[in-house]
Amino acid sequence: MAREPSPTVCRRRLAAELRRFREDARLNGVQVAKQLKWSTSKISRLETGQILPQRGDVESLLRRYAVDGETAERLLTLTEIAQHKGWWEDYADILSETLLTFIGLEAGAAEVRSWQSTVVPGLLQTSDYARAGASILMPLEAISPGEVERRTRLRLGRQQLLTAEDPLVYDTVIDEAVLLRRYGDEGVMRDQLHHLLKLTESPTITIRVLRLKGPHPADWSSFLHMRFPAVDGLGALYEDVVYTEAYSAQVLEEREEITHRYARIFDLLAEAALGEDESRELIADLADAIEC
Predict the structure, then answer these.
(1) 124 exposed, middle or buried (CB, 10 Å; 0-12, 13-18, 19+)?
(2) Residue 109 resides in a domain
(3) Are residue 26 and residue 134 in the same domain, yes or no?
């Protein structure tokens, strides 16, 4: 099944374009609001993606900014997609706003590069491993078994990105400690390692392991670096985004100087890690050791 454009990505790109066109027209939000008889907060919320854009409102803004022709049509197409509801929004009651936005951005990414030092990356987890990970929160946050199952289904739903007709290109470096750290019982870990081996057969998935006994090029916590597809007339649908996560906070970073730095960090980690074949052999050896 081909992937549908992500409404989250389209909404954020549209917001950025509306802000840029206003600035190019040398207008501020107060001036535009007065001319269109809108509130200034409406202009602000449209330009930050905080409200769903309506076609009529976008058309009014584009006329005011003298934007027409193919450019206007492309932006109106973004408007239509932005009005859709992503499947992940059904989980809004158990997710922070940042995490909800991250999943929406991930759904529209063309490539994700991730460094993981604590757990197997979410898109590569088995259901039992994901369930074991979600269960850790039960004594911390008093979440119910039902919520554990919903969190597990959410993670499995995200994994459809890897098997779509135009699959997400996923490149990850995993710390060796992740493969040794147990989530669930030995059977869960053995199945997880076998699942990683199977995933290495995909031409769009790259898994490399950073050995504990080897050099570590950067003392950096886990992160994901997302890149987005190009669209005719618009270039990249959205600029690169980096996502970092800790227990108490999730952060989306979009400043170019920061995303560029993370891209370089990933390159250093990938260079220091084992190659794909050596990583596959190590994963297989660890799985065999559990079976013994």
Answers:
(1) buried
(2) yes
(3) no
